[in-house]
Design goal:
Elements (H helix, E strand, L loop, with lengths): L1 H15 L17 E5 L7 H8 L5 E8 L6 E9 L2 H11 L3 E2 L2 E2 L1 E4 L40 H6 L6 H49 L5
Antiparallel strand pairs: 1-3, 1-6, 2-3, 4-5
Length: 214
């Protein structure tokens, strides 16, 4: 929470002092297009995060760090934008907002690939990304006193709840369709087997009725 509030306080001071872009703390990271996103809800997938952060630019790469054994999200990722200016917008607008039950941290980062990793392994595939409906967009929420967590939680709504619920509902529908398709296939196969057995029995009866040659 302290790290989230620190970024908010810096941005607030710069805004009040009318600091220029070239003198802003963001300028220290002008040569990196990566941002760090922490405290993410564990149920979010890469496509969800890209859909959210594409509101401020075009994400090109995302590395959602996962547990090596379970493959489950560890709640943080490194996201790269096509334009470094999108990093500034994402940090200024998303740091401190609440996604589902988590208040996320968004900050600049000098991201370094681990040994054996290739940046192309983390390319964003937009054919899997669904656009967020306007009514479910993440809005910049005023960040209250973080020392009083209970009061702060009351100030935040849950802007992603409808989106996640809709995605889960869609996945359930797809699973039902797959189940019906499998059932239809099994039903056709049973009918074909039954029909074939019936024809075999008919053929056997004909043979048994035919007079045997002497």
């Amino acid at each position: 929470m302290a790290a989230i509030q620190k970024i908010i306080d810096i941005n607030k001071r710069e805004l009040e002092a009318n600091v220029s872009d070239s003198a802003s703390w963001h300028a220290d990271y002008r040569d990196t297009s990566y941002i760090y996103v922490g405290y993410l809800p564990l149920e979010l997938e890469e496509k969800d995060i890209v859909a959210i952060f594409s509101q401020y630019g075009n994400p090109t790469h995302i590395n959602l760090v996962r547990d090596r054994e379970t493959g489950k999200s560890r709640g943080f990722c490194y996201l790269k934008y096509e334009d470094v200016r999108s990093c500034v917008l994402a940090i200024d607008n998303f740091n401190g907002v609440q996604l589902l039950n988590k208040r996320i941290k968004v900050d600049h980062v000098y991201y370094k690939l681990r040994e054996g990793q290739n940046e192309d392994d983390f390319l964003v595939h937009y054919d899997t990304v669904k656009e967020i409906e306007p009514e479910n967009d993440i809005k910049l929420l005023e960040y209250k006193d973080t020392n009083n967590v209970e009061d702060a939680d009351d100030e935040f709504k849950d802007p992603m709840e409808a989106y996640i619920a809709e995605r889960k509902q869609t996945e359930k529908k797809r699973e039902r369709h797959r189940h019906r398709d499998r059932s239809k296939h099994s039903y056709r196969k049973i009918n074909e087997d039954t029909h074939r057995k019936h024809e075999d029995r008919q053929e056997n009866r004909k043979r048994s009725r035919s007079p045997s040659p002497h």
